[in-house]
Amino acid sequence: MVQKAKILLVDDRPENLLALEAILSALDQTLVRASSGEEALKALLTDDFAVILLDVQMPGMDGFETAAHIKRRERTRDIPIIFLTAINHGPHHTFRGYAAGAVDYISKPFDPWVLRAKVSVFVELYMKNCQLREQAALLRLQLEGGGGKGLLGDTKEPAGLLAELSARLAAVEEQAEALSKQLDDDSADAAAVATAAHLERKLTGLRRALDALEPGTGNGAASLPSQN
Question: What range(s) does the Response regulatory domain occupy (predicted)?
Fold first, then answer.
């Protein structure tokens, strides 16, 4: 069973959180509420999130300050942040949002379909990265001479393990290619396109490492690409 991605919704107004949940429920992912910047930072200490929807105007720690804390933490600095705001002070206000680390900046009232589409892109990228980390873990297990027991279930012969790894990786490569084409067709945000390109580069590195393990290549000690 594929584990659902978590989406963090941060807003001090319960009615806004309820509206966001209604819009994003169709994505069938896990929606986590936070009613303040402090509560959001606490949630980020223990859980991994695909994307954060962050209200700008909040009492106490506002969205900009919350985003700054998120980007300073190594664990959370790469999580995409979409700022939501009820007011628009012009280009300077928008620039401040991007400078704080946002990948997008949306003014309320927003189009529910557009917001759902944007969030779905980052959820899909997150899921592909999770799949890629799984493939890397399986390959690392083989490189370390641990066999295929545990991650793949029963112990497998090296040839069988490599074949299964290759098939799993091929499935992720196909999905990543389809996602990249979708981003090109939709003229998506530059941040989403860059994230997809980074994912494809990691897939290419993992494929090369896997190919190096094939019999007859003479590269049994092939190194794995970085998963950062």
Answer: 6-123
